[in-house]
Amino acid sequence: MIFDYLFGMLSHDMAIDLGTANTLVYVRGEGIVLREPSIVAVQKGTDHVLSVGSEAKAMLGRTPGNIVAIRPMREGVIADFDVTERMLRYFIKKVHQRKGLAKPRIVISIPSSVTEVESRAVRDSALQAGARDVYLIEEPMAAAIGAGLPIEEPAGNMIVDMGGGTTEVAVISLGGIVYGRSVRVAGQKLDDAVGSYIRRAYNVLIGERTAEDIKIRIGSAYPLEQELRMEIKGRDLVTGLPRTLEIGSEEIRGALEEPLQHVIDAVKMTLERTPPELSADIVERGILLAGGTALLKNLDQRLREETGVPVNLAADPLTCVVMGAGRVLDESTEDLLKLVRPEKEFF
Predict the structure, then answer these.
(1) Radius of gyration of the chain measured on its C-alpha atoms
(2) Of 9, 76, 143, 336, most Cβ neighbours within 10 A?
(3) DSSP assignment, residue 317?
(4) For the domain 156-185+259-317, what is the CATH superfamily, name and number?
């Protein structure tokens, strides 16, 4: 125990929200110290990494033929092991450099639906990137802790965590997940839906960054008090020439309907499977929305309309998961350590 304490003092233990869209890093005793896109730019045909994070995101859709900007995480899990390891190594080094003498312990959030193979891939990537010990915590549990829900009480707390790759829906009571669902529909699928709609409706091809910008600026899940319009630029698929057009929030809301319905169905099914006593608690306390995609305009109103249950947005939806994982590190109480899964469970 003393040895672990001394090691903790010499190293800077960290919590990582390894997301499909963004990676956030929390250092014990310091808070969130890094927030960058989960993107890596590599030399095509080689394993040479050119840039990581914000610099790599600036290259999306703008690289010459010999450079590829990729997202190594897809739908909340590792799609490219080697690139993920390099990205993690870069972030760990950036945070840990000159701050400690020992390798850090790391808590990493994972979707609740991941397989044993996918969990092992996350763990192995972190170990290869320089971690001393790796613990995995399920995203809805981390988000609930980070949002300040009283998860240890004998009462129902429901959270919907919408990230870039997955949406996690869970009912938590007495420090455990009573029932939960994970759907691989979230921010990226919404971006894809916007891009597909523009291509079908206008014969115009837009990039990934433009689709995301459209979603953020005029996307919504429920009618707005004042509908919005936006000018976008893309490539005409008929002439091959650049083209500018104006689109409205009503049509983008229609484009987002199909993926959003998958999320709504997951929320409804979770409510249907929740024990009656906990359901009564949820009706009283409401559903808590967390994750970056929870910031989609009027998503809370749409869920309230569909379920008849109060819906509240977390104070800082983007940081709930990493703050929850960080609290596990900061407090290191026996109760909180029960919420994480040590690496040995995946042998």
Answers:
(1) 21
(2) 143
(3) G
(4) ATPase, nucleotide binding domain (3.30.420.40)
40 to 80, 88, 107, 109, 154: CA distances (angstroms): 11, 10, 22, 20, 44
Query: Where are the domains positioned within the chain?
Result: 2-37+75-142+320-346, 156-185+259-317, 187-257
Helix axes 257-273, 299-307, angle to 10 degrees: 50
Determine contact, residues 78/3, Cβ cutoff 8 Å: no
Domain covering 187-257 in this structure, CATH number: 3.90.640.10
**Closest by CA position to 305, among listed 292, 287, 291:** 287
CA nearest neighbour of 21 among 48, 57, 46, 49: 57
pLDDT digits over 66-87, tens only?
Answer: 788 888 888 777 888 888 888 8
d(CA 312, CA 320): 14
Closest C-alpha among 87, 74, 70 to residue 165: 74
The model's pTM: 0.87
Residues contacting residue 97 through CB under 8 Å, at least 6 positions apart? none
Chain mean position to CA 184? 11
Local structure of 202: helix, strand or coil = helix
Of the candidates 321, 342, 336, 334, which has an alpha carbon nearest to the alpha carbon of residue 131?
342
Query: Using one digit for the tens of pLDDT, what is the confidence trace for 131-185?
Result: 888 889 999 999 999 999 999 899 999 999 999 989 999 999 998 899 999 999 9
